[in-house]
């Protein structure tokens, strides 16, 4: 896997993935940025959430659950000192669907956390306190 990050101006960078997709990252105005994109550490959180949500959805589809919507709400703390590493990350999944089985959702979240999500497992191995929770909402049409 490869990627490139190129400085463009002030505190702005453009990252390009090996698959050719680009994303703008920018710093806050007090650090020379123009607030035109997420901060690099925010990208790390977004990537972790994306990695885990991908796993959860793949497992729920495989178990034939009728998912209508799935999101992960991420809450994190960082150290007060430099380096301002993440010290705690909590991923809360909100899964909406028709007749979803709690056991399937619970198992999908657990397997992502413990076995499949490379990002969250890597952060946990680095000392970040990782936690996961979920809630199920019954889909209401209309």
TrEMBL record:
The record's annotation in Pfam families points to: OsmC
Q: Which PANTHER family match?
A: PROTEIN YHFA
Q: Provide the protein name.
A: OsmC family protein
**Whose protein is this, by species?**
Pseudohalioglobus sediminis
């Amino acid at each position: 896997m490869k990627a490139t990050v190129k400085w463009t101006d002030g505190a702005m960078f453009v990252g390009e993935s090996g698959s050719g997709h680009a994303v703008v990252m920018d710093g806050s105005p007090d650090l020379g940025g123009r607030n035109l994109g997420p901060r690099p550490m925010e990208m790390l959180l977004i990537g972790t959430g994306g990695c885990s949500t991908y796993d959860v959805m793949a497992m729920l589809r495989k178990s034939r659950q009728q998912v209508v919507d799935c999101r992960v709400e991420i809450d994190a703390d960082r150290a007060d000192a430099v380096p301002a590493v993440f010290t705690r990350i909590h991923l809360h999944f909100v899964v909406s669907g028709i007749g979803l089985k709690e056991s399937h959702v619970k198992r999908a979240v657990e397997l992502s956390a413990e076995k499949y999500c490379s990002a969250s497992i890597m952060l946990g191995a680095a000392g970040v306190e990782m936690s996961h929770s979920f809630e199920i909402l019954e889909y209401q049409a209309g």
